[in-house]
Amino acid sequence: MKTEGGIAEFSVLNIAGIETARLRILGRFIAVTGESGAGKSSLVRALEFLAGKRAQTSSIRHGSEEGEVWGQFIDGTEASETLAGRVISRSGRNRNYLGEQSVPFSRLRDFAEKRIGIQSQFSQLDLLEPRRQRDLLDSCGKEEAFSLRTRLSRDFEKAIRMERDLASLQEKRRHVEKNFQDAETILETARGLRLDEGNEAEWRNELSALESFLAHRRKLHEFASRFLGGISGQGMGDEMQQWARTMAELVPQAEKDTLAPSFENFLKGLQEMENLSRVVLSKESLADAEERRDFLEYRLGTLKKLKRLARVETFEELAAYCDQAEEKLRWVQASSAEIESLQGSCRAARKNVWETAMALRERRRHWGMDLEKKVTAHLADLAMESFRFGVELSDLGKIRPTGADEVEFTLSSGGQKGSVIDVASGGELSRILLALQVSLPDGQLPGTLVFDEVEAGLGGRSALLSGFKLRELSGRCQVILVTHEAVIAAQADQHFVVRRDGETTTVSEVTGESRAIEIARMLSGDPDSPKALDHAFALLAGKG
Question: Based on the domain organization, do 203 and 100 belong to the same domain?
Answer without folding.
Answer: no
